[in-house]
TrEMBL record:
Keywords: Membrane, Transmembrane, Transmembrane helix. The keyword Membrane applies. The chain crosses the membrane at residues 6-24. It comes from the Eukaryota. SUPFAM superfamilies: At5g01610-like (SSF141562), Bifunctional inhibitor/lipid-transfer protein/seed storage 2S albumin (SSF47699). Residues 143-165 are annotated as: Disordered. Gene3D superfamilies: At5g01610-like (2.30.240.10), Plant lipid-transfer and hydrophobic proteins (1.10.110.10). Residues 37-116 form the Bifunctional inhibitor/plant lipid transfer protein/seed storage helical domain. Residues 143-154 have a biased composition (Low complexity). Pfam families: DUF538 (PF04398), LTP_2 (PF14368). SMART domains: AAI. The keyword Transmembrane helix applies. This is Protein yls3.
Length: 333
């Protein structure tokens, strides 16, 4: 499905605290950083399968994008650190893999946690700046507890230049690596919510982020919008209403389809109907049954399950179909 604009993420409610708590020129700077970083981090989207545990090694494109960000746009790694514990993220990250990503990608990490307030133009005594200061103190405390005794000269150099790529700051480096991956996931979702996508972007590729198969929607999509406030969407087909047959079940897609995305679920559905005997009934919700590898379609209080494998591929939508019971009766007569 192609889209020219979005209002989305995931898949998932995205926190807007980052810019809501800012004001004056600080708000403006954060907004600019947010928009710029969203564009940059989309290029590192291929890291997601690795840090989520689905892939055994990070793809080459992942490392390329990740390394570019750590060198050229370190402020992007700082941007959402203060929201790292937000419970609405709703995504599972393999912590070990996230921590090891800079090593696997040979990333030239040139950032310290204490640099973040300046990079984000935060007032030194602000609550947001204190988040980074506290994190830096935790990292230094951990390092001092576990590291071998250092010479006075080495200790002085470490205090003067606490670079993340020095052995005494590995705890800080690991924390930054993990936070950068959390940032990546947040901004990928946020970018989907606020950026206008080109006509080459396909909404079918968005569905797996919500643990939904691509084939739930037909191929003939003209445009869609997805709200970042409640994940509600509106889809417009590129053709007239049409039909797709799944495992013997004929499904009707209206010109306009609406609903609300969740993790493995679609609620408040309108514009999709299924034929039951001699009548067409409206589908009101869709759930993924991972345990049984099925897709469950809700029709009011009733439901029907179809094999999930039938929805892995994107199907063409046919204009021909029996629209209502009258058409079927006429054909039988």
């Amino acid at each position: 499905m192609k889209s020219k604009n979005l209002s989305l993420g995931v898949m998932i409610t995205i926190p807007c605290i980052l810019w809501a708590v800012m004001f004056g020129h600080t708000r403006s700077d954060i907004e600019k950083d947010k928009e710029r970083c969203a564009n940059k981090l989309i290029g590192a989207a291929t890291c997601l399968p690795y840090v989520s545990g689905e892939a055994n090694v990070p793809p080459k494109d992942c490392c390329t994008g990740f390394n570019q960000i750590t060198v050229s746009n370190p402020e992007c790694i700082c941007l959402l650190v203060k929201d790292k514990d937000d419970p609405t993220l709703g995504l599972k990250i393999n912590t070990t893999r996230a921590l090891g990503l800079p090593t696997r990608c040979h990333a030239p990490v040139n950032l310290t946690i204490s640099d973040c307030p300046a990079l984000l133009h935060l007032p030194p005594n602000s609550a947001d700046a204190k988040v980074f200061q506290d994190l830096a103190n935790i990292g230094n405390s951990t390092t001092n507890t576990t590291a071998a005794p250092a010479t006075a000269t080495t200790q002085q150099q470490s205090n003067l230049s606490p670079s993340l790529n020095t052995p005494q700051s590995m705890a800080v480096q690991h924390a930054t690596a993990l936070l950068s991956l959390i940032l990546l996931l947040l901004l990928l979702l946020h970018a989907s919510a606020h950026l206008s996508l080109s006509t080459s972007d396909d909404v079918h590729d968005l569905l797996p982020a919500y643990n939904l198969p691509k084939g739930l929607l037909p191929a003939d999509i003209k445009s869609y919008t997805l709200s970042n406030s409640d994940n509600s969407f509106t889809i417009e087909l590129s053709s007239n209403p049409c039909y797709v047959k799944f495992d013997g079940q004929l499904v009707y897609y209206d010109k306009i389809i609406k609903g609300k995305l969740g993790n493995g679920t679609v609620t408040g559905v309108s514009g999709i109907q299924a034929k039951k005997l001699f009548v067409w009934v409206s589908v009101t919700g869709i759930d993924v049954d991972e345990e049984n590898d099925m897709i469950e379609f809700h029709v009011g209080a009733l439901s029907q399950k179809l094999p999930a494998k039938d929805f892995q591929d994107i199907h063409s939508c046919k204009a021909k179909g029996l629209r209502d019971s009258f058409s079927l009766l006429e054909e039988l007569i």
